[in-house]
Every structure is written in structure tokens, then in C-alpha cells.
């Protein structure tokens, strides 16, 4: 299958690319980001770097002909591009909203129009959100309230887009808590994170399990419309 990963240059994207080029179910990975996606380090013998095509996109509202060509004939797309909460204070709110919401919907529009040989089966679209994203716009969380409501709005828009896509797109929302890479960080950082996440009731999940869950759902089909942290731990461990 041909897999598109948007936001492939980031923390989750790099691990997802590493797992995807090792998966026998994946024949081609198109990694789209605003900069080159690096070839992953410490690859297994079964990894096939030839499966990976790095595509640089300089306008996520108006795709170039090259990007349109690269997304054609895709079977699945995993969408990782967003401004994370820690970066959201570093730029104007309108910009955060544009990157998180407008870029995602523009991407869905292009994917739904892209030519596909296997058009009878909907393109599988996995949107990675966050555990505290809130779809109910009347329930503002006490911390990062505007951000959590905005990410919840994106979840609703993605699901609505798929429902109205005339079977072009099938969507799944994945909602990780704080994602931890055991290869990085140290005991002090982990302890601080554990205290902070317990105060805001945010579960911790591991990077391997998140990427494995995303890949499993994109290649094998969606278990359900929304996957939470318990689902990520369960699916990630068995793959
Ligand atoms: N990390 C966590 O603990 C965590 C927890 C829960 C949910 N999530 C969600 O998981 C997804 C991926 O997170 P991550 O940790 O991998 O984030 P990340 O490392 O910041 O990567 C995000 C991706 O979005 C791209 N991006 C950011 N701003 C952009 C812009 N203005 N224009 C174009 N591309 C832009 C980044 O490009 P560059 O590489 O060039 O910056 C990167 O490819 C996000 O939706 C995030 O909210 C993450």
C-alpha cells in the first residue's frame, strides 16, 4: 500500500517513517513536510529505505503540481502536522489555527480529489489529535482551553468531511496523551512530566506504541472512529 505521512519531519513523524519503511504491508511512503524528512537512524535489516520519498511542501493551502502528483494513488494518510501546545504560544493565535485547522481541511480536500486506481475503497485518513482536545465547544478545559477546543473542532471537521465525502475518505481520530520516547529524557525530566501530567489528568504513552498504532490502523483498517490512550497502549503492544 501507498502511505502518505504529513508532518513527517517531527517527533512522531520520524518514528512513524522508521516503522513504515520496515512494514511488509507498506510498499511506498510519501513523507510530506515543510523541510526534508531525514532517513531514519538505527534501521532494522528488514527496513527498505527505497520505499521512502521525501517531499517538501512550501504551501499547505495551495499544493504544487508535484505535491498533487505525489499524493495520487494513495491508500492511506496519517496527518501529524500541527502546532503542539508548547509551540502554540510562540506565534499569533490565527497562525496556530491556520496550521492546525485550515491546513488539515485543505489537505483533505486535495486527498479527496486526487486520482486513485483503487477508488472503490475510501482513502484511510488518520488524524492525530490529543487526549485533551475537546469536541464540545461549550466545555472549555481549564488549562489550554482555547487550544483544546480548537483541536476538538478540527476532530469534528475531519469526521464531518469524511462523512460528506461520498465514500472518498474514511477517517479515524487518534488521541494520545503526552508521548514519551524512552531513548530521550532522563529521570528528572520524566518525574517533572509525571507530576505535570497527573495534575492535568493527561496519560503518558510511548512513542513506539503511538507509531505502531497509527501504522496498524492505516494498514489494517479502523477498529473504531476514535482511539484513546488505552487503545494506543493495547494496539501498540500487540504490533
Ligand atoms: N509530542 C507529544 O507529546 C504529543 C502528544 C499528544 C498529541 N500530539 C500530536 O501529535 C502530532 C505530532 O506531534 P509531534 O510531537 O510530532 O509534533 P512536532 O515534532 O512539532 O511535528 C509536527 C509536524 O508539523 C510540522 N509543522 C509545524 N508547524 C508547521 C508550519 N507552520 N508549517 C508546516 N509544517 C509545520 C512540523 O514541521 P517541522 O519539523 O519543520 O517543525 C512537523 O513536521 C500533533 O498533532 C501533536 O499535537 C503530540
Automatic annotation (TrEMBL):
One of its GO terms (molecular function) is oxidoreductase activity, acting on the CH-OH group of donors, NAD or NADP as acceptor. Residues 4-137 form the 3-beta hydroxysteroid dehydrogenase/isomerase domain. InterPro entries: 3Beta_OHSteriod_DH/Estase (IPR002225), NAD(P)-bd_dom_sf (IPR036291). One of its GO terms (biological process) is steroid biosynthetic process. It holds the Pfam family 3Beta_HSD. SUPFAM superfamilies: NAD(P)-binding Rossmann-fold domains (SSF51735). It comes from the Eukaryota. This is 3-beta hydroxysteroid dehydrogenase/isomerase domain-containing protein. The lineage of its organism: Eukaryota, Fungi, Dikarya, Ascomycota, Pezizomycotina.
Amino acid at each position: 500500500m501507498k502511505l502518505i505521512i504529513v508532518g513527517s519531519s517531527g517527533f512522531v513523524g520520524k518514528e512513524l517513517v522508521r516503522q513504515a519503511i520496515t512494514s511488509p504491508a507498506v510498499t511506498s511512503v510519501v513523507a510530506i513536510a515543510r523541510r526534508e524528512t531525514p532517513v531514519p537512524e538505527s534501521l532494522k535489516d528488514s527496513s527498505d529505505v527505497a520505499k521512502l520519498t521525501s517531499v517538501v511542501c512550501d504551501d499547505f493551502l495551495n499544493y504544487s503540481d508535484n505535491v498533487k502528483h505525489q499524493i495520487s494513488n494513495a491508500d492511506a494518510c496519517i496527518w501529524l502536522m500541527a502546532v503542539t501546545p508548547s509551540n502554540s504560544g510562540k506565534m499569533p493565535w490565527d497562525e496556530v489555527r491556520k496550521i492546525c485547522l485550515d491546513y488539515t481541511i485543505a489537505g483533505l480536500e486535495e486527498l479527496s480529489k486526487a486520482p486513485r486506481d483503487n477508488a472503490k475503497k475510501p482513502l484511510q485518513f488518520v488524524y492525530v489529535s490529543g487526549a485533551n482536545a475537546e469536541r464540545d465547544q461549550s466545555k472549555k478545559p481549564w488549562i489550554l482551553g482555547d487550544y483544546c477546543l480548537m483541536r476538538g473542532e478540527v476532530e469534528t471537521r475531519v469526521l464531518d468531511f469524511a462523512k460528506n465525502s461520498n465514500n472518498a475518505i474514511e477517517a479515524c481520530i487518534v488521541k494520545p496523551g503526552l508521548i514519551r520516547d524512552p531513548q530521550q529524557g532522563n529521570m528528572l525530566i520524566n518525574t517533572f512530566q509525571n507530576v505535570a501530567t497527573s495534575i492535568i489528568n493527561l496519560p503518558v504513552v510511548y512513542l513506539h506504541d503511538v507509531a505502531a498504532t497509527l501504522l496498524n490502523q492505516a494498514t489494517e483498517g479502523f477498529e473504531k472512529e476514535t482511539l484513546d490512550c488505552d487503545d494506543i497502549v493495547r494496539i501498540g503492544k500487540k504490533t
